Amino acid sequence: MRFLLIVLALLALPASARTVVDSAGRTVEIPDEVNTVFAAGPPAAILVYTMKPEALTGWPRALRPEEQDYIAEPYRDLPETGRITGRGGEANLERVLQIKPDLIIDFGSVRDTYIDLANRVQEQTGIPYLLIDGRFENTAAALRIVGEALGVPERGEALATDVEATFKRIDAMLADVPEEERPRVYLARGPDGLETGMKGSINTEIIERAGGRNVADDGGVTRGLVQSSIEQVIVANPDTIVTWDPNFYRKVFDDPLWQGIDALRDGRVRLSPTAPFGWIDRPPSVNRMMGLIWMAGLLYPERWDGDLREDTRAFYKLYYDVDLSDEELGRLLEWTQGRSPM
To answer: Is the whole model's pTM more than 0.85, yes or no?
Structure first.
C-alpha cells in the first residue's frame, strides 16, 4: 500500500508550479493553473465554491434536497467525497488520489495538529495542501489568498472587499454602544439546546462580532463547544437565544424548564436558516457573513441600516451565484421567523 501511494503521488506531481505561502506560514508549491480542488472539510468546500465553483471536485457531504435550490444548478449534484479533517473524517488518501485534484485546501484551525496533518497528507500524496486560517476576522485575507491560489484574484478581491465593508458597517453601528449595554446572547445547539460555544469559539464568532455578549463566558479559560446544563442557562439568563436546530425551536416554548429565562418571556428566541449552509456556523465558513448581517439586524433593529430581504438576495447572488426567486427568498425569511421547511 505504501508503494502504491508513492507511485500515485509521483504521477500527481504538477509539470510546472508556483509557490504560495499559506496561513500557517508553509511555502507550498502549487500548479500554475489550478483546475480541481479537493476540500478537506465543509468549511473549505464552501470557500472553494464561492471562489471558483467549477474547481470543486465534490461536497464532503452530499447536499440535501432543501439545500440544493440555494446552490447554482451545475454544482447541486457534485459527488460526496468525504472529508480529511474534523468530525468523521472518512476520506482516505486512496480516495483523494483517485480524484487526482490539483490542490487540497483546508479552511479552519492552523494549530500544530492541522499543520502536521497537512504536511503528512502532502508528503504521502504529492498533492499540494494549503491550510487557510478560518477565524472570522481573517475572512478577507483568506479570500484573497485563495483567490490568488485558484487564479481568480479579481473574485477574491471582490468578496474580500465586501467582507471588509460589512465589518466596517458593524464597527460604525457599535462605536458608541458600551459593552455592558449590549444584548446577552446564548447559542443553543442541538435538539435539547444545551450544546453551546464558549466566548471566542469559532462557533460564536458572529454573535460577538455583531455586538452580542456571549453568556457562555468563563473568562477565556474554556474555548470551543461545551455541554451546558439548563441550570447554567437559567443563571446566565440571556435576553436573546439563537439556534439552528428546528427541533429545539419547536419545543422550547412549551418546555417549563426554559420559561423563566428572559429570552423566552420576551419572545426573543430566533431560528437561523441552514440552506444551503448555516447562517451561524455549521459549518463555520464564509456563509457566516450572511449570519452576521442577520444577527446585526436582530440584535440592533433600531441601529442597523439594512433590509433583510434585499441583503439576503444580494448575498446569495454575490457569494452563491443564485438569483433567488420570491418563493425561495420567502422560505428563508420565514425560516428566520421559526417556520423551518425541515
So the answer is: yes
